[in-house]
């Protein structure tokens, strides 16, 4: 699969499941771990996941360059000065492309399996290389509501 988590790493403190059980013992120890306790409580706040994600977007470089995304956003009438918004759109486009290509791969595997099962003595190689064909891509995009047709070259 092409980049399932896109390199974004979430901190383990937010989902550690410790809750507030360790807060009273940390305060009673003279405040030595008070900073960690406050940080744990802040990271479990409802909006902290979004703010952490937006901070991680500043360091992340998506496959689609910011200039390309900005160009198409500007063509659509959206002018964004914040690079995090542009990277968020780039990340969404990257996820969409990844899903379409993954679906096209599944269509290709199904088509290849059907061709091999119909022929006697079909190839059973596990290390088979797949080629992205227009037919597979057309079927995958049809699942997302995008109609793709071949151009008529006779015009």
UniProtKB/TrEMBL annotation:
Protein keywords: Nucleus, Transcription, Transcription regulation
Residue ranges, annotated region (Disordered): 15-47
InterPro entries, sorted: TAF10
GO annotation (BP), single: transcription initiation at RNA polymerase II promoter
Compartments, as annotated in UniProt: Nucleus
Gene Ontology molecular function: promoter-specific chromatin binding; RNA polymerase II general transcription initiation factor activity
Keyword Transferase applies: no
GO cellular component labels: cytoplasm; SAGA complex; transcription factor TFIID complex
Listed Pfam families: TAF10 (PF03540)
Family note: Belongs to the TAF10 family.
Protein name according to UniProt: Transcription initiation factor TFIID subunit 10
UniProt source species: Drosophila willistoni (Fruit fly)
Highest classification ranks of the organism: Eukaryota, Metazoa, Ecdysozoa, Arthropoda, Hexapoda
Gene: Dwil\GK24479
């Amino acid at each position: 699969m092409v980049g399932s988590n896109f390199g974004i790493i979430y901190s383990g403190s937010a989902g550690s499941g410790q809750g507030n059980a360790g807060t009273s013992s940390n305060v009673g120890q003279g405040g030595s771990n008070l900073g960690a306790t406050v940080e744990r409580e802040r990271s479990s706040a409802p909006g902290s996941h979004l703010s952490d994600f937006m901070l991680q977007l500043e360091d992340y470089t998506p496959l689609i360059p910011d200039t390309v995304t900005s160009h198409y956003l500007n063509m659509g009438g959206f002018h964004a000065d914040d690079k995090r918004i542009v990277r968020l759109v780039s990340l969404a486009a990257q996820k969409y492309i990844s899903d379409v290509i993954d679906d096209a791969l599944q269509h290709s595997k199904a088509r290849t399996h059907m061709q091999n099962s119909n022929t006697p003595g079909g190839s059973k190689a596990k290390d088979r290389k797949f080629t992205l064909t227009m037919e597979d891509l057309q079927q995958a995009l049809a699942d997302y509501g995008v109609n793709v047709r071949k151009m008529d070259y006779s015009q």
